Amino acid sequence: MNKQYNIRCFLIGSMLSIAIASVMAQETKVLSDTVAVEQSIVPGRMFNTTKYKNTSASSTIDGSQLTKTVSPNITNTLAGQLPGLSIRQGSGIPGDDNAKWLIRGIGSYGYGRESESKLYVDGFEVNAEYLAYLTPAEIESVSIFKDAASLAPFGMRGANGVIWIETKRGKIGKPTISATIRGSMQKAINVYKPLNSFAYASLYNQAVSNDNGMIWSPYYSGSELDAYKNNQSPNVDWYDQVLKNTGSYLDANVNFNGGNKLARYNIVLGYANQQGLLNVDNDDKMSNLTMDKFNLRTNFDFNLFDFFEAKIDLGGRIENRKSPNFDISSLMSNLASYPSNIYNVYDDEDQQNYSGTSLYKNNPVASIKGLGWRSSRLRILQGNFNLKEKLDFITEGLYAQQAFSFYSRTISTYNKTRNYARYFNGERTTTDETTSLVAGGYGSGGMNDWKQGIITFGYDQSFGKHAVTSAVNLHLSDYKGDGKFGYKYHYLNYNGRVNYAFDDRYIAELGFSYFGSDSYAPGNRWGFYPAVSAAWVVSNESFLKDSRTIDFLKVRASAGKTGSADSGETGNLGSFNSNGRFLYQQYYYYTGGFNSGNSSPYQWNTGLAPLFAANKDAFAEKSMKYDIGFDISLLKKLDITVDAFLDKRSDILTFNKTIMGYYGNNYYLSNIGKMTNNGFEASATYTDKICDLKYSLFGMASYAKNTIDYSGEVPTAYSYNARTGQPYGVMMGLVADGFYQLSDFNADGSLKSGLAVPSYGKVQPGDIKYKDLDNSGFIDDTDITKVGDPAYPKLTYSFGGKLEYKGFDFNIMFRGTYGASVNLMDFSNQFIAFTDNRNAYPVAQGAWAYYPEQGIDTRASATYPRLTAENNDNNYRASSFWVKNNDFLRIQFMELGYRFTDRILKSKKLSDLRLFINATNPVTWSNVLKNYDMDPESNYGYPALKSFSVGVSLTL
């Protein structure tokens, strides 16, 4: 880490610390007020409701909870916080570490991937890029909408759930200034290193001998092995050369809040800097992975003439990112696949010439030090303008509201590049030449413009025991971006809600959306999405009203329809990756050329063919959602919420697979798919006090399991071959049955009679043996069946607690998953040894081998098939041998803090001062992490991170 970076971080931290010195209003009071609001207010589209009047299945947390997981990316901080929300943390690449999320699992194979829930901030839709790098200091609350009651007003945007975020607003009262600064050391959770040169060469000798009829014929001689063992020949740990042990992270924010009845303000200034794990300096010639982020948010509220309310919100962000001039995923792939013995880092003693060959061209050290650097600057500006008119002069409780939002995003790029010559044993091996550093021109990385407008008429009034809250709304969206099919998206959404409550006991609500999208044919662009829900507050009945045990009990249910206008099926058409849009239009593609004629010169012809058969009836898929649940509070200490849900998908856009290939290139997509998703959620919190010790315990669990009901699948030979009737993404393959042994073969190398013959090439002792499920005498695709769960979990859960004692506080949260699998064949660099010039890893040391004269016999203990330097289609294919359980439990965060006493604070003219230390992802329990150094969430590549932080928060 260079001196300029240290000085810059120190100056920024010092300036923020000086600003902190005159800071904040009593944080304890703010937190207690927030909790009270959280318990009584449930966010929703168009209007919020109290906990008594809410009929939906939604979950909400306070924004302050997001600070406990230290990460520059807000999506990672949501892990384990909300029942129904499953988070899979991303890698640790600065500026490219988005988590992936699911709300109530995967409900449709139409997209069949994570992160498809829609995102809204302050009532307007946003994209994941905008959401990811908001700061927790900006956020008042985060909610997830999960059932028809909360999602029906979103129409075609609601089928996969909604993440709803509200930013902080000014509060009436004395002006306050609050600030927080944190500094973190970050380390890799996992680095799976390949074998050193000696171990690699030793196993390679086995591989080539196996390929030579199991006759010992080593490629590396004994003297060569000794040279590797004694470091007299190349033995490079590429991971140690390219990655360092620690990176760093710093963030800080200052918040100004205050106002009166007429005007209120909340202003947030934020800064963050992250330095990656690459072992390289930051200077004019090279760069680590770095990100600088500056945030500014200003939210203003005005009350005018007792009947006008206005809001002006502006949010801006600048992100500066810098990296080596080499693709990071390619760098990590090279680290994984380049053996330790191919060459030294430098080809000369003076370390002037980088090593490289035509086969292993990209020297990993030179990739980060010898090619220059690239950078980008992302600028985002979003503004929301809201005006509300109270129309009590017409009838009391009537109001009108207009809102407009703009979002502008631009990326500019700049780089300084050079190249380096590759040498091996003093000779140039490629045509590359060493060049001087050259500055590139400024470029554009893309531009987006998103404008949205909302017009609302609402009514909120009570009549004795009756209360009505209602609103109708028109939401217009105009998005312009980059790409062939993503350059524009338009939709209109007429939606509304009516909530009726009688005596705070019986509540009913109707919601609807009439949604139109430009994705579909004229005359077929609109869909209607209604929902109905009800709740019974049992605790307000006379027979429970005076109960000393039950403080609150509410039973609720909802049913309704939502939709999704997104589809990944068009991604199978290659260049026509339109997100399921414009299928009503006929598109063609260039088929290449051909000659015609009877003699030379022939006539050259070009041709066009339909890319697919147009379907004017293609439309958004439908989701019928059902939910039943209850909320209960007991003894003023225990709060429990339980929900059960059912999601029936239909009209999923699907390729018609029943048209035979000999009809030609005749693709047709239609709404024929069906899928069912069901499950439950439960959460509980217990709070109590013993003398001066306050404590709270919490836990939550979310279970979701889906089934493909119909997907147009071509009928299979046997029912166990089919994906229909199985969960989406279930892992299919052959069932492994150990390894072939010497006793399984005749003298001529053929399999003995009675053993099924594999259809994937000739086998020999040490190859994987498979079960012949159909008893045909052959191992082929008719023996493929379910061998593992999908990659996403059935069950996600978290639990933890908080202790407070005389100024000290301690927070901890555990998070885990159950019911997910991982296929090791998806990571060929780590698990396929030697073939295609690959590396070898510790897992290969368990290979089946039998060379008694060399003292090698692993027949009884083998955990890996025989080694080979040739392609082996029998061993390296999807099977139960390679599918592993991917359940895990990790400590998401631990935080210990101390809040200074009032006596000390008054002497410093502070109202609050808290010091804290934090650990994020410090410990993980996982079979794949234990056995293969694989992080269960981010797997391999640039590693996921654990963070150890120290910080201070102050209030004036």
Query: Mean of residue pLDDT?
Result: 91
Q: Percent range for helical residues?
A: 10-25%
Shape: globular
Number of helices: 13
In percent, how much strand structure appears in the residues?
Answer: 35-45%
* Rg calculated over all Cα atoms: 31 Å
Uncertain spans, ≥5 residues at pLDDT below 50?
Answer: 1-39
Distance between the termini: 34 Å
Derived from helix and strand composition plus strand pairing, the structural class reads mainly beta
Strand tally is: 47
> What's the story with the biggest beta sheet?
22 strands, antiparallel, barrel
Structure in a nutshell:
The protein is mainly beta. 11% of the residues lie in helices and 44% in strands.
Explain how this protein is built:
- The chain has 956 residues and is mainly beta.
- Helices cover 11% and strands 44% of the residues.
- The chain has 13 helices and 47 strands.
- The chain has a 22-stranded antiparallel β-barrel. The protein has a five-stranded mixed β-sheet with strand order 3-8-9-6-7.
- The longest helix has 18 residues, at 3-20.
- The radius of gyration is 31 Å and the shape is globular.
- The two termini are 34 Å apart.
Keyword list:
22-stranded antiparallel barrel, 13 helices, single chain, 5-stranded mixed β-sheet, 956 residues, mainly beta, disordered N terminus
Task: Walk me through the topology.
Elements: H1 3-20, H2 27-40, E1 41-42, E2 49-50, E3 58-62, H3 74-77, E4 85-88, E5 100-103, E6 118-121, E7 124-126, H4 128-132, E8 139-145, H5 148-151, E9 162-167, E10 173-188, H6 197-210, H7 222-229, H8 238-242, E11 246-259, E12 263-275, E13 290-304, E14 308-324, H9 328-337, H10 364-369, E15 372-390, E16 398-417, E17 423-424, E18 427-428, E19 438-439, E20 443-463, E21 466-480, E22 488-502, E23 506-517, E24 526-537, E25 550-564, E26 588-596, E27 603-610, E28 621-634, E29 638-655, E30 669-690, E31 693-710, E32 731-733, E33 736-739, E34 757-758, E35 768-770, E36 778-779, E37 785-788, E38 795-805, E39 808-818, E40 821-823, H11 828-831, E41 850-851, E42 856-857, E43 883-885, E44 888-899, H12 902-907, E45 912-920, E46 924-926, H13 927-932, E47 945-955
Parallel strand pairs: 6-9, 34-36
Antiparallel strand pairs: 1-2, 3-8, 4-5, 6-7, 8-9, 10-11, 10-47, 11-12, 12-13, 13-14, 14-15, 15-16, 16-19, 16-20, 17-18, 20-21, 21-22, 22-23, 23-24, 24-25, 25-28, 26-27, 28-29, 29-30, 30-31, 31-38, 32-37, 33-35, 38-39, 39-44, 40-43, 41-42, 44-45, 44-46, 45-47
